[in-house]
Write a structure and sequence with these properties.
Radius of gyration of chain A: 21 Å
Distance between the termini of chain B: 41 Å
Strand content of chain B: 15-25%
Structural class of chain A: alpha/beta
Radius of gyration of chain B: 22 Å
Number of strands of chain A: 12
Largest interface: A-B, 43 and 42 residues
CATH superfamily of one domain in chain B: P-loop containing nucleotide triphosphate hydrolases
CATH class of one domain in chain A: Alpha Beta
Order of helices and strands of chain B: EHEEEEHEEHEHHHEHEHEEHHHEEH
Strand order of the largest sheet of chain B: 8-9-10-5-11-12-14-13
CATH architecture of one domain in chain A: 3-Layer(aba) Sandwich
Order of helices and strands of chain A: EEEHEEHEHHHHHEHEHEEHHHEE
Helix content of chain A: 25-40%
CATH superfamily of one domain in chain A: P-loop containing nucleotide triphosphate hydrolases
Largest sheet of chain A: 8 strands, mixed
Number of strands of chain B: 14
Number of helices of chain B: 12
Shape of chain B: globular
Number of helices of chain A: 12
Distance between the termini of chain A: 29 Å
Helix content of chain B: 25-40%
CATH architecture of one domain in chain B: 3-Layer(aba) Sandwich
Largest sheet of chain B: 8 strands, mixed
CATH topology of one domain in chain B: Rossmann fold
Oligomer: heterodimer
Structural class of chain B: alpha/beta
Chain lengths: ~325, ~350
């Protein structure tokens, strides 16, 4: 298998009036071709900023303070605006949470798809339209020819998200970054969209980075996951392994806080306190104030994300 | 059996969205007629809530669950139907006569950012309802507020702060404290944890369950999150397009859903670590509540649809053990499911 994406020590900072914050702190992970990878965490953990940073979509007051992103061997952080634009929406596409915000309300579905394709390929409008119909069919939209002439407001939420996926797919990218793609949708629609994303990735051998707060969703779709906390990855490994045998105290806490993991009606396990704001992350391990196993060393020394005996990487002093 | 704490009978709530007189005028047969456009958000909903239980109402967005909650607590007047609290009819009371019920029934809202007044200190937010409803001295009010803050896990010494100084989870604790401070019997919680992170959701759910035990509270819990509902409910009502299609004790509903919509809905719950899809797909989209379908509201999307479904509205029927479902063909569907699962086994 070939490596598709290699992220090394990626760090994103924001210069705010209140101070300098590190939203993404030395994040590193690798993605093979066609691999489905999940970035999980609660709000403010830095998962979305990581997704944006991969395709250089960080704007002021934020900046990429260090690290590298290599996509198919090319360094992306060093590209000029012109060069990265050729990658974005072409080789790497991004899907966002709210389809109504992503689609342009005053353009027809057809125009938006044709425009996307023509921005990256020199083909005639007629051919582009044919490709658009083909892609809409792939995302299982009924009567695609008619849909091309419709506006986003004429479609339901689920249909809109299918269109967004179609716009992303039309250039046959090798990596899709999906940032909470079903969070705004109802549970029955969510199940359909997730099944669709999964089968498309398999059929086209497309890589997927799924950014979500929903552990259940991510566990159904991805092969590996990274759990983020306060801007850092605290645990990376095979999805099935992490879901069954979480090692990091935060991952353990997060999983046992889920109602699904307790008999009906029983008290839930809870993690005490809240995630620290990025302005005052405690020294040492960022989780130490909420962790039951915290010792003196946790308040003093930041644990690195290291390989452990079970074959995954965990950032904790007390995991062997 | 003990009388229910609250019961509603054939409740309807419709909203007139036709606008002003000029917007309502249409030409028909050569003369102007006045036509109204109604959103039929809640239609013919009946159920009872027993003392000490948690009845959850689930459904997808737009099914009328929040409207139902707001109608029950009196934020909207119902268009038709009756609401009884301890066998007293409360839907037509004057504000003065409604007053004693307002301390008995309280509500917790979804968004702790929007439901707390940003210009009031937490102390003021919590003291106001006590001062209004209960005759207590200043010192007693202070004690009462401090005690409730303690119970919900907010440090009473923070009472002089403003809502923006608290995190989302803390704010939701304050909202719950505001409901608890008048000593209610019955709390309607409308999506109380949907705006919160997973680790905070567990904290708030535990708080709600603890408060229920300590104070013998009765909850009407509105949520779209099925795994949360599965966890905390005594009984569950499933709503679709303004009507209740199934109502059952939590175990019966999640272990053996009867209505085709409930079956599809439950199959869509993402389960941790489960590969492959068990999801039963339903065709099409939810129709608009402006043009309600004739007959069964689910007939346009139901895989088991027959002619009778398009003509006759199915009634909620009892299938034993308090398990109600509104479908003409429950027996047939259940038999067919048993047969296919028999084949698989």
């Amino acid at each position: 298998m070939k490596t598709l994406l290699e992220v090394d020590n990626l760090t994103v900072r924001f210069s705010l009036r209140a101070g300098e914050i590190t939203a993404v702190d030395q994040v590193d992970f690798k993605l093979q071709e066609g691999e489905r990878f999940g970035l999980v965490g609660e709000s403010g953990a830095g998962k979305s900023v990581t997704g944006f940073a991969l395709i250089n979509l960080i704007s002021k007051p934020g900046y990429i303070a260090g690290g590298s992103v290599r996509f198919q061997g090319n360094e992306l952080t060093a590209l000029t605006d012109e060069q990265i634009r050729r990658v974005r929406g072409n080789d790497i596409c991004m899907i966002f949470q709210d389809p109504m915000m992503t689609l342009n309300p005053v353009l027809t579905i057809g125009t938006q798809m044709v425009e996307t394709l023509q921005a990256h390929r020199s083909i005639s409008t007629k051919e582009a339209k044919r490709a658009a119909v083909e892609t809409l069919r792939k995302v299982q939209i009924p009567s695609p020819e008619r849909r091309l002439r419709q506006y986003p407001h004429e479609l339901s939420g689920g249909m809109r998200q299918r269109v967004v996926i179609a716009v992303a797919l039309i250039t046959s990218p090798s990596l899709i970054i999906a940032d909470e793609p079903t969070t705004a949708l109802d549970v029955t629609i969510q199940a359909e969209i997730m099944a669709l994303l999964l089968s498309l990735c398999k059929d086209e051998n497309m890589g997927l980075i799924l950014i979500t707060h929903d552990l259940a969703v991510v566990s159904q779709v991805t092969q590996r996951i990274a759990v983020m906390y306060a801007g850092r990855i605290v645990e990376v490994g095979a999805t099935d392994d992490i879901v069954k045998h979480p090692r990091h105290p935060y991952t353990i806490g997060l999983l046992s806080a889920l109602p699904q993991n307790k008999p009906r009606g029983q008290r839930l396990d809870q993690i005490r306190g809240v995630m620290p704001t990025l302005l005052d992350i405690p020294p040492g391990c960022p989780f130490n104030e909420r962790c039951d196993r915290a010792q003196e060393i946790c308040r003093r020394q930041r644990p690195g994300l290291e390989w452990k005996q079970h074959g995954g990487r965990v950032a904790c002093h007390f995991v062997e | 059996m003990e009388a229910p704490l609250l019961s509603i009978h054939n409740l309807d709530k419709h909203f007139d969205i036709s606008g002003g007189l000029l917007d309502q005028l249409r030409w028909k047969g050569g003369k102007p007629v006045r036509e109204r456009t109604m959103v039929r958000a809640v239609n013919r909903v009946s159920f009872e809530i027993r003392k000490g239980e948690t009845l959850s109402v689930v459904g997808e967005s737009g099914c009328g669950k929040s409207t139902l909650a707001r109608t029950i607590i009196g934020l909207y007047p119902p268009n038709r139907g009756e609401i009884f609290y301890r066998e007293e009819r409360i839907d037509r009371l004057s504000p003065a006569r409604m007053l004693p019920y307002r301390t008995k029934m309280q509500m917790v809202f979804q968004d702790p950012y929007a439901s707390l007044n940003p210009r009031m200190r937490v102390r003021e937010t919590l003291e106001e309802p006590v001062r209004f409803h209960r005759r207590l001295s200043g010192a007693e009010i202070k004690d009462c507020v401090a005690q409730v803050m303690e119970q919900v896990g907010v440090d009473p010494s923070w009472a002089d702060r403003y809502p923006h100084e608290f995190s989302g989870g803390q704010r939701q604790r304050i909202s719950i404290a505001r409901a608890l401070v008048v000593n209610p019997e019955f709390i309607i919680a409308d999506e109380p944890i949907s705006a919160l992170d997973v680790s905070i959701q567990a904290q708030i759910l535990n708080l709600l369950m603890d408060a229920q035990q300590e104070r013998q509270l009765t909850y009407l819990f509105i949520s779209h999150d099925l795994s949360v509902v599965e966890h905390i409910s005594t009984r569950v009502a499933v709503m679709y397009l303004g009507t209740v299609c199934e109502l059952a004790p939590v175990d019966a509903l999640f272990d053996g859903p009867l209505h085709p919509y409930t079956q599809a809905l439950l199959s869509a719950i993402p389960r941790l670590g489960e590969k492959g899809s068990r999801h039963i797909k339903i065709e099409g989209d939810v129709p608009t509540p402006i043009q309600l379908p004739t007959g069964c509201v689910f007939h346009g999307r139901c895989p088991h649809v027959r002619t009778v479904c398009t003509e006759t509205v199915p009634k909620l029927r009892d299938f034993g053990g308090g398990h109600f479902a509104a479908c003409h063909f429950i027996e047939e569907i259940t038999a067919r499911r048993a047969e296919t699962s028999g084949h698989l086994a």
